[in-house]
Amino acid sequence: MKIKKIILGLDNLENVELGIGDVGGFYLDNIHEIIGGFTLSYIGKCKQADYLHIQIHKRVDEIQRLHDYKDITNVKIEYEDGSVEDIYVPYKQEGDFLGLDNLYQTSFISKRGYLHIVISKDKTVEEVFNEEFEDDEGVEFSFNMYGI
Fold first, then answer.
1. Residues with Cβ < 8 Å from 131, sequence gap 6 or more?
2. What does the alpha-carbon distance between residue 146 and residue 24 come to, in Å, rounded to a whole number?
């Protein structure tokens, strides 16, 4: 199935919608189902990934917001056939207050303005995208592959 768009869900219930041309590299790993809920009135199944990395094109308006506030909670993938998958990402914060950063989310804006995000319990954006920090031409190539 071909992906039509990717929607990043944020902790404050806002969404950032990305067309397929807005995304360079995109990778979700170890997607699995879990059963749980917040109260006994709702317990259900949901999908969770252990790892996300994504490169976002500099033309996306919300780049600075995504970099400044580390609060991505889920990724919704909409396919061309109309089906949708909602996948939660690892999330950990210090304290009980709403709006605190996800300690598992790291990000970097490259010299040419591309945003790199990694959400992982054991890897940082620097570890995953180290070469791209030095070589923005490689990042531009990944966007050009999608016909930008």
1. 138
2. 8
- Residue of 143, 109, 138, 112 lying closest to 126 (CA atoms): 109
DSSP state of 29: E
Assigned token pair, 61: 């308006």
Nearest to 16 by CA among 78, 61, 82, 80: 61
**Distances from the Cα of 10 to the Cα of 13, 95, 97, 136, angstroms:** 5, 18, 15, 27
- 47, 36 Cβ separation under 8 angstroms: no
Q: How many Cα atoms sit within 13 Å of 127 on the Cβ side? A: 9
pLDDT (tens digit, 9 = 90+) per residue, 52-100?
999 999 999 999 999 999 999 999 999 999 999 999 999 998 877 777 8
Q: Residue 105's domain spans which residues?
A: 3-144
How many domains is the chain built from?
1
> How big is the CA angle at 64 (ends 19 and 6), to the nearest 5 degrees?
20
Contact 3, 79 (CB under 8 A): yes
**Residue 146 scores a pLDDT above 60:** no
